[in-house]
Amino acid sequence: MSVLEVQHVTGGYTRKPVIKDLSFSIEKGELVGLIGLNGAGKSTTIKHIIGTMLPKEGDIRLNGVTLKEDTDKYRTAFSYIPETPVLYDELTLSEHLELTAMAYGIDKATLDARSAVLLKEFRMEKRLNWFPSHFSKGMRQKVMIMCAFLVNPSLYIIDEPFVGLDPLGIQSLLDQMDEKKKEGASILMSTHILSTAEKHCDRIILLHEGRVRAQGTMADLRQTFAMPNATLDDLYIAMTKERDHEELA
Amino acid sequence: MKNLRDVWSSRFMHYIGEVQKYMQFIFTGHIAIVLVFLIGAGGYQYSEWLKVVQADFPAEIIIAVFVGVLLAFSRPTTLLREPDQVYLLPLESKMSLYFGKALAWTFWSQVWIVAIAFIVSIPLLKAVTDLTTIEIWSIFILVIVLKYISVQGEFSYRYSERGQMVWVDRLVRAIIFAAAVYMGLQAQFMLAVVAIVISVIYMIVFRKKSVGEPVPYEHFVKLEQNRMMSFYRFANYFTDVPHLHGSIRRRSWMDWLYKFVPYGKNNAQKYLVYRTFVRTDDHFYLWVRLTAISAVIAAFVDIPIVTWIVAGALSFATTIQLKQALLTSGEFRMDMLFPVPDNARQIAVKQIVRIAMVTQAIIVGLCAITQPMFYIAVAIVLVISELTARVAK
Question: Quick check: B339 and A75 CB within 8 A?
Fold first, then answer.
């Protein structure tokens, strides 16, 4: 059974759908990159998966259930790192971790053990009692990342994770993702940093105007675009040109 | 570049605009009514007391010390800003023109405080001393002159010492000024003039010392920021100040409250909402100011029905505003994804609002305790709040 199954999903903000008949799935232990131009529908796709937007048509299943069928099971199955950090101004770093742990039913001992590891990995041990107003963009991002990894879910949904992180932070995040993958977790990551995506993703989904233009391993994509030896950047640019042709036509 | 006079004028206009904007809220807000009421009550008490005051009441010494201390607090209003340390640097030698304007404003904006304090004490002086009207108004002029010297003195001190140990300077000036006023009140006008001369010499010492010193921008900018912040904070008791909007304070003295939310999955929203209420200035001060008004009315109005109506109205206002403030939010928050029941936040908000309102009821009850049937005010606060919380969406 796939961890995440998106089946024929159509949805968007207004009557005009942003994503159209979207279908893909993520298997256990897979790192999948969601790639697309600005406005291709990446964020909308993610919003549908995390449940802040509901599909007009189609189904999204996490560990076999939809949000409606079993809200608790669905929500416990994933954790989400948004593109722009969303923190509580009134909570300290340690309170963010504690709140997250409480909400996901993690006991105190596990919280302490996991957060100690994460705080060390992301070099934030000395900032436990700081409020977000004193954090830089990168630190805010780190708080979100730590909260997400604290939960230890089956699926991580990570939106544009590398912007604002320092090189050490990026490395720590990649290490954490690698570790979780080995433990069997799946990751859906949307990004514009294509070289990193090419290097780390098992599979890539190319979104284009709300539809899946192509998906598969790098080898699959090269075949689809008939561009052997192409990098992901080359494929991405090819897709852009394709769109320009369509617009001219 | 514009000259320094224009710089001052444009700063001044902006400052006045800002002050006006918030004064409007302060004086049209609910606390203004309470203030008028308190001033009226205070005035009435004072006039009653004057009828029975003993002739040996030490009015001179009390007024001298009080006015002396008031005079000594003459913080300069320079309206300097942080970038000035860079942009006004080339004009260092011409800054005296700017400061002249600033000190004139400082004098006029502060002199009325001490003037009112003195005028209020005139009836007392008439009651317990033999001073003639002319003598009393001569002392009034003396006080005004001292204020001018004080403004110049504090500025020169802060300039030359970069604001170090300003309380020592204030203490010295307070003693000299109190002595001057006391001499005046004893009709020893020659001695009062001597005290003035001493204070002028004191001022000149620091003025001489500051000649050639660079402008202590850092100190004056800090002073300005503190002044505006305290003004905004004060205004925030009456209205929402955007500069402070959503501002957060730790308020660690309230940490004990969080102990009532034990660690556990079912308490996640409570964990969050308790902290949101205590640490967000908007929410917390909303409760503080409405509770304060209710308490003051309960304490000073002896007509039970008035107390009850006010307590009920404010209970309604506090409950509905708190509930809405804590429940509505258009923005995405991470707790929207939490695997907890959808009504968890509602339950948590209901609980913290209940705690806040029980506290309000207790405070109002304690303030009304001298009245017969004070417990009815307590009951009204609780019942209205509970009904409001249930009915309001």
Answer: yes
